[in-house]
Design goal:
Methane Monooxygenase Hydroxylase, Chain G, domain 1, 85% helix, 0% strand, 89 residues, mainly alpha
Amino acid sequence: MANIKSQKKRNITNEKRRLRNKGVRSELKTRTKAARAAITTGDENAPELIVVAQKRLAKAGRKGVVHKNQAARRVSRLMKAANKANAEG
């Protein structure tokens, strides 16, 4: 454990942010999974799920929860899957 007051505060802040980021990352996985499932099953509300997943990924990228390039890559892959499904059916 740290002896310096500023480092003690930093440790507390880091723990709060870690827990918040953990929840955000979990939500990202849930939203992406739901969107992908809707794409594969051909669900009629798939576009809405895709938009929500895109928004959450973009926000997480802006806030630094995930790297902005990782967020962009995930959105790109999601859209690639959606476009492929639309082209097939």
